[in-house]
Amino acid sequence: MKRFSLFGECLMAGLLVLLAALPVVTLVPALAAGCAHIKAHVDGETTSVRSFFERVRSALPGGWVVSVGVVGGFAVLVVDVVFLRTRVAGGGVVAVVCGVAAVGLAVVVLRAAALWSAGSRWSTVVREAGRRAASDFGGSLLLVMSLAVMLIVTWQLPPLLLPMVGCVLMAAVAVDRRQSPVAKHPLPR
Fold first, then answer.
1. Phi/psi of residue 157, each to 5°?
2. So where are the chain's domains?
3. What distance in Å separates the CA atoms of residue 54 and residue 120, rounded to the nearest whole number?
4. How far is CA 125 from CA 12, 82, 88, in A?
5. What are phi and psi of 72, to 5 degrees?
6. Which residue from 38, 43, 57, 173 has the fewest beta carbons nearer than 10 Å?
7. Among 61-70, 87-96, 124-133, 163-172, where is mean pLDDT lowest?
8. pLDDT beyond 80 at 185
9. Inter-CA distances, 180 with 145, 174, 177, Å
10. What is the mean pLDDT of residues 151-168?
């Protein structure tokens, strides 16, 4: 029964993250709060809705800037794919490169969300997430696979987006914790 409660928390985290990310500029703080929600459940701490939104609020300073950058980065990559693929010779190659860049950006964002903790500076978190994404290829590949599963499952059955977002957050937390104990390498503040 205890294992099923983790799935329930993933479902709740997915729902809360999707609600909190609706304003778009709260995307990264919502993801960070979702990862913190999963960590809190695994560590036996409180996982109330109120505590989730307190985490979102504490992630907002600086996090909204990262969200704008992430959304802008994805928008540039999508526009590049749409225009270059159809109007430029060799656009298919550029589309593949843009797709790989988008996946890389998504991995860094997920790693940053899993690394974030209350009081952390977003510039430090994003820098460390980029470093870990490059140095831990296996973990990054696991996150790519979790994103691929989410895309395939939600393409086939869109209502499964709620639990799949939570499962991707759980994967990000698991990748973050898989090589080192929880308190071994705290993030510098």
1. -145, 90
2. 2-177
3. 15
4. 25, 31, 37
5. -65, -40
6. 43
7. 87-96
8. no
9. 21, 10, 6
10. 94
CA 162 to chain centre: 14
Rounded to the nearest 5°, which phi and psi values hold at 186? -70, 150
Query: Can you give the pTM of this predicted structure?
Result: 0.88
Nearest to 171 by CA among 152, 131, 143: 143
Using the CB atoms, write b or e for 96-116: b if 16+ within 10 Å.
Answer: eebeebbbebbbbbbbbbbbb
* pLDDT over 50 (residue 35): yes
Residue 117 CB coordination number (10 Å): 17
Mean pLDDT of the chain: 89
Cβ atoms of 70 and 28 within 8 Å: the answer is: yes
CA distance 37 to 15: 12
Angstrom distance (rounded) from CA 111 to CA 187: 12
**55 or 87, which is more confident:** 55
